[in-house]
Write a structure and sequence with these properties.
It is built from 12 helices and 9 strands. The chain is an alpha/beta fold and about 250 residues long.
Length: about 250
Amino acid sequence: MVTLGIPKGINNAIIKIKLPEVMTLPLPETKEDNVSIKAYKRIIDFINKADIIVIGPGLGRERSTQKLIQKLIKNINKPLVIDADGLNALAGHLSILTATRGKRPVTILTPHPGEMSRLCGKSIKKIQDKRREVAKMFAACYKITLVLKGHKTIVADFKNKLYINKTGNPGMSTAGSGDVLTGIIASFLGQGLDEFNAAKSAVYIHGLAGDLAAKEKNQLSLIASDIIDKIPEAIKMSGFCRLSSVGRAAVL
């Protein structure tokens, strides 16, 4: 069960038409039509009913929105998946992760190499040259689970567990593909998997769905919705059947 927090101005015009399966939470907006810092209390009140929180995809980098993201990450005490503009809001503000270290049951970050570069201050080349080491060190330092996306996506946690994924293809480096992965991670968390296995399983299923989509449509024309369409087949092929419950996610 998913509730999407969005600027109130686009609630009826776009989202309810495009995403009939998803409930929405209209929120105060800025002049630039992004979610405003004024939405903080409504979000905090609402997520008391949620099991999993996702923060970042599509939120934007406006100052008021970034302040909202930072304040939410500081104060959310439920399992949290941070992606996209959630990661951008943390760049230069990693003290937020330090301050919340160990206070949440689960924190998962899902950067691509560019986002990882902004987070840790290393060049993309240095990150790509030592992907395992960078992922392990970052996860251990902030007591999180890190999903470092890209060729052979890496999942590392602060308990020294490491997974290197072998599914997926270059056609998946398309807009929205990472958001699909974030949604699968949140779904698996909400259905009973621990954070490392939720991230690891989601990365595998996401890549397999992308491979199935590419086989049918080719890599060059692959878009994110093609990956979504192949998730059921990927789950069936993998024999994945460890889900035990139904969770409620809030996506911001």
